[in-house]
Design brief:
- Four copies of one chain form a homotetramer.
- Chain A has helices at residues 17-34, 47-51, 77-82, 99-112, 123-130, 151-154, 156-169, 184-192, 202-205, 210-219; strands at 4-8, 37-41, 59-60, 87-90, 115-120, 136-139, 174-178, 197-200.
- Chain A is of the alpha/beta class and 222 residues long.
- The first copy, chain A, has one domain (4-219): Aldolase class I (TIM Barrel).
- The first copy, chain A, has an eight-stranded parallel β-sheet with strand order 2-1-8-7-6-5-4-3.
- In chain A, strand 5, helix 5 and strand 6 (136-139) form a beta-alpha-beta unit.
- In chain A, helix 1 runs parallel beside helix 10, helix 5 packs parallel to helix 7 and helix 8 (184-192) packs parallel to helix 10.
């Protein structure tokens, strides 16, 4: 199992444009210095732009279920691949999808060979999504997202419960967790609970010192 | 009044990745050679990537109404601006929006100073959207989109009717039309009917000879 | 101009089932006693059930834009009419719609001859919706909905501004307002500001004494 | 295992208002005469109205995930229960839902004790939804819905495959199938393939002789 830290830039001002690119560079340096896998998820319009310059994997924040064709304003897995993306978030709590579209998106990402991180809000939905065979499932209790208490502290049983439920369906799926993750200690705890890494957003992007925040996060990986 | 030709790449394979970029170059050349304003709308993930290289304006295919913040997978007007985009389609028939979100998107685009093309399906919706004061309103009867008969021939009265309805609300809004537009003759007719230009997609992107298609289109501008 | 008071039961427990029906009876009595027009909007599944028994008009809380056909789970204007409904809310802040669907819904309601109350969140959206010619437009600033300060006090200029904007497009549309409305005094103020009535929800449905709340509301009508 | 035939009235004109009620009576008679369980799904606004009069179970065509509260225009499980409904379709192909909402809807229906029929479009989605533990899962390949070839003939392996996948997760879930079902022969085949019944819509509602169609359908139950 390889641990991964996925940094979601959301639509934060600090994660957009030139500032967002500087932030991506910080993530890249933390990865290169520590040897820990770090993935960046910039705003959609920057995906290709950033991917052209970075050595760490760039993931999309969202893809639609569509293949190619008359889908104006949709994000297709193929366009992510062609733009230089190596994976994508799917069904993030700020961009929930219909289940038939999740199945289609995961299948199309598999076809074009990019990784999938299906985000879920509960153990039940995690188990359900395991049947769709994504690369990762990331459990994030919505009420903790953007907050100050990490999921690893507030609801450790949700992480271990999701790991158990997901693995009962498909042992090949890696489990991530997120919501309130900010420190290396949180990362270590997440791994102890059976996950393969974390999703982090405001903890890095809105930090006064993103470089320090990143270095702390990667330090939590054993 | 300056005539504009907006080329929507949708999620067509021919408009994605390297092929999409070559297509954008063809559009750029047609614009430079003819002096006609041409705008390209590539898939969202390519927006910044293409805008870094092109001299013609690049528009997004869609923006959400959000400003900045916790909006994973949303396309903010600010990210389009920062990515190098000069405008955006809004409410395309393949990506319809709620009216409150259209108002928010148009207002936020105005704030960050990028152009807005609100797409509509009828004279009634065109008139309604005129009250939101976008830069352009583009009327496209849904049943003609992607078809072989241009709107200028099938429903010329819809274009002239939309022009009249929109101008009765706000004379400053330019009117575009689309659906089935393929030739310079269609462009000329669109202008005669009172519009300031056209939206074109399959007519160029799915053409066997996109260069010829583009040269024909720009030739229709008086 | 006839003043109307529309009572939206939302999905409140107090507005559902037998309790909801008793509440509808209270609204009916207040109307009969005072001579003021009162409309009730029960949960969708109760529409026909309540309409069979009541003498006051029953409106749906929502309709979709569909006519008849393969639309499982959609609410068609024809079904509302056939169920005994005399009108419907459209685009309520808790059930926002796409603009093309609003146009379709209003047109279909006109065809089957039921009234339409298009709800809006701003003066701009109110003006836009006026071009679609509904029976009523109801402006409700979202941030005041369900709160303790009535819109008539917090933002009187939004009501008078909406009245002016709507009437500039179509003098035949009556304007309503809502958000935080609880007393007869609020109703009187709403009428002074140029509206033809109010939308009220928690002020009646969540009241400890709905009968008293209703009698107070109707007392505000001159 | 008890076989059930669920008749979905959709928004067909023949299934609305007085005509819809006569159709429900026909379904009721077929059930009483044959002893086969028949369920009717009328348009939402008729649910309580019809349930007050009928002896067969009435199901809603759709419920939202909301419990009670400020949910204008949403259909809550509690309102279905209070209106006299005994169950509901969820995630029908004409009313797809987000996975987190399906989980919430199923859980809330369980709490208020009404049955749930989660509709799915593929074996993968069926398996996924099995983890949410609804009463029934109904598989309906979208391309066959409303058509002339029954799913039992066109894609028998999808039904048996769904049965196997669903039972591998939760043996307690009964499996239904639908799309193109019209005759007693189709019903018999559906049961042979391991399902516990069918969803039928146009085959009855749009039939020239709904009574005959119903009698034929129930005759297929062993």
């Amino acid at each position: 199992m390889t641990v991964v830290i996925i940094v979601n830039f959301k639509s934060y001002e600090e994660g957009t444009g030139r500032r967002g690119f500087e932030l991506a560079r910080i993530c890249e340096r933390a990865s290169l210095d520590s040897g820990v896998d770090v993935v960046v998820c910039p705003p959609l319009v920057h995906l290709g732009q950033y991917a052209d310059e970075l050595s760490v994997p760039v993931y999309a924040q969202h893809v639609d279920g569509a293949r190619v064709g008359s889908y104006t304003g949709h994000v297709t897995p193929m366009s992510v691949k062609e733009g230089g993306g190596q994976g994508t978030l799917i069904n993030h709590s700020e961009r929930r999808m219909r289940i038939a579209d999740i199945e289609r998106a995961v299948a199309e990402c598999r076809r074009v060979e990019i990784s999938t991180v299906v985000c879920t809000n509960s153990i039940g939905v995690s188990k359900a999504c395991a049947s769709l065979a994504p690369t990762y499932i990331a459990i994030e209790p919505p009420e903790l997202i953007g907050g100050d208490v990490p999921v690893t502290k507030a609801k450790p049983e949700v992480i271990s419960g999701a790991v158990e439920a997901i693995k009962s369906i498909d042992k090949g799926i890696e489990v991530l967790c997120g919501a309130g993750i900010k420190t290396g200690k949180d990362v270590r705890k997440a791994i102890e609970l059976g996950s393969s890494g974390v999703l982090v957003a405001s903890g890095v992007v809105k930090s006064k010192d993103p470089e320090k925040a990143m270095m702390d996060l990667v330090s939590g990986v054993p």
